[in-house]
Amino acid sequence: MKPFNPQYQHTLKEPIQISGVGLHTGLEVNMTIKPATPGYGIKFQRIDLPDKPIIKADVDYVVDTSRGTTLGLDGVRISTVEHLMAALVGMGVDNAHIELDAPEVPIMDGSALPFVEAIEKGGVQEQDAKKIYYSIDTNIQFTDEEKKVELLALPSLEYKVTTLIDFNSPVLGTQHAAMKHISEFKDEIAPCRTFCFLHELEFLLENNLIKGGDLNNAIVVVDKVVSEEELAKLAVAFKREKISVKSEGILNNIQLRFPNEAARHKLLDVVGDLALIGYAIKAHIIASRPGHSSNIAFAKKIKEYIKKNRHAAGVPVYDPNQPAVLDIRRIEKTLPHRYPFLLVDKIIELSDTHVVGVKNVTFNEYFFQGHFPGNPVMPGVLQIEALAQAGGILALNTYQDPENYDTYFLKIDNCKFKHKVLPGDTMILKLELLRPIRRGICEMRGTVFVGNKIATEADLMAQIVRKDSARS
Q: Which partner for 217 in 3, 31, 90, 110 could form a disulfide, CB atoms 3.0-4.6 Å apart?
């Protein structure tokens, strides 16, 4: 079996079907999770409605967090999405289309484990597209003084989560849970079930708010003395002959899967709610007394930070004190260009999936004589040419004898010029493969940086051709 590569996007190998009951609606739900193309993300579709509306799994569409996380658009709702979202993140699924014939994701046993098992059974498929991670390079904090909630995102090389809970309950006590790497989710976090206190359960039952509730899909913490009459009412509500409570303080004496199952489930909820940011992040999340409303508010804050700073994500760091991977002499051996048309001075990073080159722009460049005389601006077409040349080095790096091949560019798409390049600027040329090279066709995303600003960006497609072959 091919090892899971977190650097690429993933979807399902085949559709999977899951049926159950909605916790709050009590309706039977049939759910199908289907594969989706790279970049599709996670989207839900209500196939039971006439126009079959689709709602993106995004914090911008969260409309309710009172009893779970609910997405909504134009009056259409999809409730209790957090456990499924957590399972998708935990199993590395980036792209999926989810069809439901009811307004709520089935609660199953109150954990993410049934979803994880279904995804694992169906299989996860690697896709020909890189996965983009956004790093948090400063602390992001959310607090709710009234609820005594504090959420913090710290810079980290991995996505990890720590939760702390304190409900002032002698049954639960103060608990914490930690996930140091997303690979721990399946075994350590996914099996942990949702929980509530008996006084909350009684309120929900009296107001007919958990029509699909069952003692098999939640842990009920008994936080008060319960009379036999109350136990009898609960037995009728849950269609049981008898319900009991022992000294452990758990209704019907359900066996906990972990001593700190409550804290672990809160961690599960954090993972599921933060999945609605819409971006894969690398950060250490510390959540003290988290809940759905605070999780979503925090997710919105992180998303806003990423939107403001994503231009800086992946900005190469150029240290002129470090030796070049390829200097100008090595570049001349690879590329068929010479002065005045060689537009890459050195290569500072090179792998099988990306390249970073440097072009120093001086007032002595030949093109400044005729391009905006008196107000020198580097022609955009030459910025693209510089990207293309650096991309040629990336493409040929996959060959053992690159000097025997040339690259010819077939197509340039999505080209944007965002900032002028002026004399004295240092252009950082970054190209990343959009998908593996196949049959000599190389597809790349190129970006020109000046400092930490994007000057130019474009998608480029090139063909690798042996020099002794005629180009078709």
A: 110
